[in-house]
Amino acid sequence: MDHIFKALSDKNRREILEILKQKDMTVTEINQYFPMTMASLSHHLSILKQANLVITQRDGQHIFYSLNTSVFEEIMKIFINLFGNKEAK
User: Fold this and answer.
1) Which end of the chain, N or C, is less packed with Cβ atoms under 10 Å?
2) DSSP H or E stretch at residue 65
3) Domains located in the chain, CATH noted
4) What is the CA radius of gyration of the chain?
């Protein structure tokens, strides 16, 4: 869980996740949205991948990044359990 919060603590990584909501993309496609080096972007993607927030799929020479929606469902369950409906109490 700490990996997830570390990954989400960075604005650039949150923006990457927002961009990937549109469609699966390669690092080159994602890089078009950011004024950073490919090395920096690759580092951010690596952290997101370690947190299991994104998954990769190779297609020939290209690696496509996509959201791992099952992890987001788990995160939502955790937040609901932590913060739940306080009015019901």
Assistant:
1) C
2) strand 62-67
3) 2-88 (1.10.10.10)
4) 15
Query: In the prediction, which pLDDT does 85 show?
Result: 64
Tell me the pLDDT tens digit for each residue of 13-35: 999 999 999 999 999 999 999 99
Between CA 73 and CA 57 the distance in angstroms is 21
Residue 9 burial (CB < 10 Å; 0-12/13-18/19+)? exposed
**How many CA atoms does the CB half-sphere of 84 hold within 13 Å?**
6
Q: What is the DSSP-derived secondary structure letter of residue 37?
A: -
Q: State the Cα–Cα distance between residues 82 and 6, nearest whole angstrom.
A: 18
